[in-house]
Amino acid sequence: MSVWDQLLGQDAVVRQLRRAAREDRPTHAWLFTGPPGSGRSNAALAFAAALLCEQADPAERGCGHCHACRTVLASSHADLTHFVTENPQITIEEARELVVRAQDKPSVGRWRVMVVEDADRMVERTSNVMLKAIEEPPPNTIWLLCAPSPMDVLVTIRSRCRPATLKVPAVEDVAELLIRRHGVPRARAEESARLAQSHVGIAKRLALYDDARTRRQEVVSMPLKLSGVPDAVRAADRLHKIAVEESQADAEARNESEKKQLLVALGAPDTGRVPPAIRGALNRLEADQKRRSRRIQTDTLDRFLIDLTTFYRDVLTLQLRTGSGLVNEHLAQQLQDHASNSTPEQTLHRIDVISRTRDRIRTNVSAQLAFEAMAVSLL
User: Where are the coiled-coil regions (predicted)?
Assistant: First the structure.
């Protein structure tokens, strides 16, 4: 299977990238943009695989079965740096490390490829650290940045990158992928793809894990439980608690494993007091783990808010009689009742409230208080 096969509904982008991969001197910096679910990182990795592919024929690059293609897609190729920050923002230290890595010559392939996910998480100071390296990289280094939209990246960065703009794939394409790759029954695959709004990763989780479907159902049913301020506060606290528990469960096992590996690497004694030098390294590790846990929690809450928005999107669809399909078809009657008891203006206001809450939880405000304020505003 070619590396391009995973890019659902991205024919124009695939043609653009395949042409570039055949060039002797492809553009040195790219910016992959598209809404959540469009497959920005998949496209960047597919392009990286094509750049490093071992096929002698340029037209065959991105074959998907050579050693280079397989290791790039697994993010283990020697000439690939696949960076995903575990902090709420890409730190200056992380940016400096990327700049240093970008200076390395390729060891086995033609190019040193730097894939940076969440480039929108770079503040201006961090972007300035990377600017020179992206503008004038070494001859064999290629940068592939990923962000939701060009406007999410500072103009000084995006003006130096060639754009690759992706779109959300069709629900039918995502469903077929779940059926073909994971053996999901058709009805469940189609429902999961619709509920995920064509986001492949989320659709896969909804199709394969019942607990993910249960959590989503609890989130989108929240407006049906808002009959007063006490109910709103309780519902908000419940969603916040679910997000905290999920992020903690995801982090605990990994944190303990990282701690053990660090102690072994530093030669810490099996028993007794930890030497001060090692204690300092442990403190830094724990601080990094706390920042990562906060990001996981924020991302989980953000996903909840996106799911919640689909409820009011469906309500607005019914109120305006657009004829568009409902994301939450299983709640059709409740959605109709809600649409009949409110106005389109009220629904748009509620969607704006959720959007503002998404912005707030990315700052230093209390996520729990932000959710409570949102829930009350949705009454």
Answer: none
> SS3 sequence, the chain?
CCHHHHCCCCHHHHHHHHHHHHCCCCCCEEEEECCCCCCHHHHHHHHHHHHHCCCCCHHHCCCCCCHHHHHHHCCCCCCEEEECCCCCCCCHHHHHHHHHHHCCCCCCCCCEEEEECCHHHCCHHHHHHHHHHHHCCCCCEEEEEEECCHHHCCHHHHCCCEEEECCCCCHHHHHHHHHHHHCCCHHHHHHHHHHCCCCHHHHHHHHHCHHHHHHHHHHHCHHHHCCCHHHHHHHHHHHHHHHHHHHHHHHHHHHHHHHHHHHHHCCCCCCCCCCHHHHHHHHHHHHHHHHHHHHHHHHHHHHHHHHHHHHHHHHHHHHHCCCCCCCCHHHHHHHHHHHHCCCHHHHHHHHHHHHHHHHHCCCCCCHHHHHHHHHHHCC
**In which band, very low, low, confident or very high, does the pLDDT at 275 lie, cut at 50, 70 and 90?**
confident
Does pTM surpass 0.85?
no
Percent of the chain at pLDDT exceeding 90: 49
On the question of pLDDT at 302 being above 80, the answer is yes
